[in-house]
Amino acid sequence: MSASIQTRELVINWHITEACNYGCVFCHSIWGKPKGARDVVKDMQASRNLIREVYEFFRPGNTENPLYRQMKWQSVRLNFAGGEPLLYARQMPELVRFAHETGFNTSLITNGSRLTGALLDELAPYMSWLGVSLDSVNPEINQRIGRTDRRGVQLDVAGLARNIQAARTANPALKLKVNTVVNAANASEDFSALIRALSPEKWKILRMLPVVNSNLEIDDRMFAEFVMRHRAFRKISRVEDNSEMLESYIMIDPLGRFYQNGQDTRESGYQYSLPILDVGALSAFDGMRFSVDRYAARYSEVA
To answer: How far apart are the C-alpha atoms of 57 and 144, rounded to whole Å?
Structure first.
């Protein structure tokens, strides 16, 4: 491994909740929770403390961070994820603003169902990226994979597009990313019209990752055919197969623990650290598996 890996930005993914108003059958946002444990996001002061602690540990130039010996980064971004983070719509504007003021670039990944124009007005000035998970444009397929709420209501894509356009007009620096999990239900779909309509800066095409279950798992041929069908978008697409996703994300679970996936996750579960607020980020991160090379393949240039 090169000792001179450079990246513009180090991304930390805080999955603030396991709860979601959708029920995607291939969801991997399922964590082991000790009985009686409380999500950090339910305590605003604890959330602020976690944000400060994580920023201090991952701030650019922190020589005490063990990653500093292997890579260098110019900025650090906190990505709020879930579950569905906008189930905490009341807290999210304050959390995003506080993270921004602390020093993070900020982003949010959402299924879009709770992303109103009014909420975007509050969030957009403090975010560099907005991510939306879109796994089908077919109502029947959305129903099959669970992208619907308990009343059977599905995402209003046209309304979402209007809200996003208004937010990008208000904050021209805001970039849009679409995440699509390719699975057995949607592998034959054509997303071309949707991607053209939304005009994202990035389209992340992920192969369904069977770390928690194998529901709707696909083979190499099906995934390759989906990617080839959308080759017209290769300039904005980032394709991630299963091997590229293992041990290549820096992730925090709802309880404020670093966690990691790996080849053994389906058999033994995620690897968890001690709670960051109990032991500090340095001690919590110690021993966590993380592949700098795999991360660099997604975000970095090697000097």
So the answer is: 42
